[in-house]
Amino acid sequence: MATDAEPGRRRRCAQDTPDVPKVPDSRGDSDGPRRGSLCDRHCAAINNAQGDLGDLGCHLHRPRVPPAVSTPSCCQQHSEEVCESCVVKTTLTAENAVEANKLSNNYKFGFKKWKSHVTARPWEDRSEIVKELYSDLNVIRASGGSTLTYGNVLYLLLFGWWLSLLYVLVAAVMFVTVMGAPYGQLCWDLAGYFLWPFGKVIQKVEVPKSHQVCEASVGESSALLGGPTPLRWRPRCWVGAGYWHRASTAVWLCLGYPVLALAHGLVCVTAWLLIVLIPVAKLSARATARVLLLPPERVLIRRLRMTEVPLEGEVILCCYRAANPYYYKYAVDGINVFAVNLLPLVLVTLVLGYVDSPNHLTGSAVKFSLALLSIMPLSYYIGMAIASISAQSNFAVGAVVNATFGSITELTFYITALIKGSREGNRCYAEVVKSALTGTLVGCVLFVPGLCMVIGGIRHQEQRFNSRSAGVSSALLFLSVGGVFAPTLFSKVYGKLVCGECHNVTQNPLGHYLCHNCHFDLMDNNGTLYYSHVQPLVYTVSILLPAAYLIGLFFTLKTHTHIYDIHISDCHMPGHHHSAVVHWSRWRALVILLLSTLCMSACADLATEHISPILTNSTISQYFIGVTVLAMVPELPEIVNGIQFALQNNLSLSIEIGNCIAVQVCMLQIPILVLFTIFYPTNFTLVFSDLHVYASMFSVVLMNYIFMDGKCDYFQGTVLVMVYFILLAVYFFAPSPSGC
């Protein structure tokens, strides 16, 4: 979830779009000797002609070669084979070393890909759109434009009318008390303001230092707001003197302020949760904390005129728009606003789940849904903590953290489900875990890259990616899928087919029989086949797959780092030579990581605790529940990251996100589950149903076919997404697995 990405921003040297492929610089390359500068220029000309590079900025200190000139000359002197082998270098720019490490880690195999910044961005680098998101609603614009907008009308319908009416009622109460009459007049004026606050200003009247200045200022008018100052707002020498000791103030704080503060608090929370109405939340919060606590004679409310000059004095509130669609980028201490809003849901889930154990307040379906929704923000916090620690640490620490906590979200749920199934003697939990594993594999191979291609293809006609780095992930994916399903294929070949509920169709003992619930029995002859052949094969595969994963890490991160060809540019704009201000320090990120993991374990325990009635009473196949809900909900933060990378024409990282998750499922998660069953016996065996085998293998073959040429468009993405939905339809109509 990128919080600082701005659409349409002018590309600069230190911009926030570092992941766009750049033309290779012949002066510095780690991929051995170059094949010739003419070939380099030819590749650059081709990419520029296709519109993939855009403005090169200050990464290259040589003029761009026109495509019409470089293409014929290169093709005359170099063969087509040589030019096709030219490597397009990806040059990244970052504001500081920590951000550079984070960007570099995105391209490393086995590291979590993270789009958002882990350090505070320089304020001068942000666009005016983002700067407006963080404004305090106290800036007067020269021209605010029309205030009649859809967002302002929505404010009037949701909050303005009843908030204004409440101010009128409080004003009446304050007038009745007599002593609170000044506050009654203030509430009356604020009733008109909060009915339609747009294009109006609330200013704090300054207290003159001398009595002479006070008297001399009577009758003056404002050049900005125009017109004479009303008598009620004329500053007097006693303004603000002994404010907290007045009787009117005591009446106000007892009768008026609590009611209005409660109303503004409700408006603030509601507007904040709606996200696009965050300006309304700021408006209410500032009114409660500043305006309502000022002496009434120091509050000035006026309507702005377009041609007026800025007003001298402090402006407390000045709002033009109630809604801003760009607030999805808003962040609090580096945390996206969506993750902030979903964090209270985690607390509600834990309290409701463990306090209301007998289900007096809510049922199992509600608690299961809340537990799954709580996993989404926790996955975000775990991802940001891992990215922060990796960016501030060396390679070894980053690799250990990613390998340890990279799959903690899924493993937590799988292990708790297997434990519950073992305690209840219910094999259905093991089948649901297998369905979730298969659903994660199929979804990350088909749905994640397909959706990124479709959304990225809307903005970019054709997207290119590093086919060599994708080839490494594809090879590991082929190896991992073959290893995971090897015991299943072995059992199909050597297992004994056992069927139940057989009926003679022809009434002839030698005729045809119609049977149901057929499966391969691995426990024939006291389990000789399983314990003597299948189980040793499972343990062997569980050892080889993690070993292959480590070899892949060593290959891509040590011996063949040139595959990714990533370089961090030293070019910076003035003012960027400062130390990094990280959002989360290493210790803070570690504490958040551990707390998020602990909460994740609790939410997973609640999800498995309340999934049993859903599996028992639901008419939907347990296959479908595992493949969709349990598999894809924890991956939503990764899907959002992939979409953001694709929108920035960086499809390589979008593809790597899906591939890395799929590889980790096969090479890390499944072996860990097998290892767990050794120390804690469960019903989990590495023998999958035919539907899982065929769906997984078909998905991997199709994905590799699509990614062969290193380029794609929205049509190919649509194909992947459609195939994924077809497989979901198959799972939806499939009968429940045996044992459920």
UniProtKB/TrEMBL annotation:
Superkingdom of this protein's organism: Eukaryota
Ranges annotated as biased composition (Basic and acidic residues): 22-35
Protein's membrane topology: Multi-pass membrane protein
Residue ranges occupied by any Sodium/calcium exchanger membrane region domain in the UniProt entry: 367-486, 589-731
Gene3D superfamilies: NCX, central ion-binding region
Listed GO CC annotations: endomembrane system; vacuolar membrane
InterPro entries, alphabetized: CaH_exchang, NaCa_Exmemb, NCX_ion-bd_dom_sf, YccF
Sequence segments annotated as region (Disordered): 1-35
GO BP annotations, alphabetical order: intracellular calcium ion homeostasis
The Inner membrane component domain, residue ranges: 151-200
Signal peptide: none
GO MF term set: calcium:proton antiporter activity
Keywords: Antiport, Calcium, Calcium transport, Ion transport, Membrane, Phosphoprotein, Transmembrane, Transmembrane helix, Transport
Transmembrane intervals: 153-176, 250-280, 335-355, 361-383, 395-416, 436-458, 470-490, 537-557, 589-608, 620-640, 661-680, 686-707, 714-734
Protein localization: Endomembrane system
Listed name of the protein: VNX1 protein
Organism: Hylia prasina (green hylia)
Lineage: Eukaryota, Metazoa, Chordata, Craniata, Vertebrata
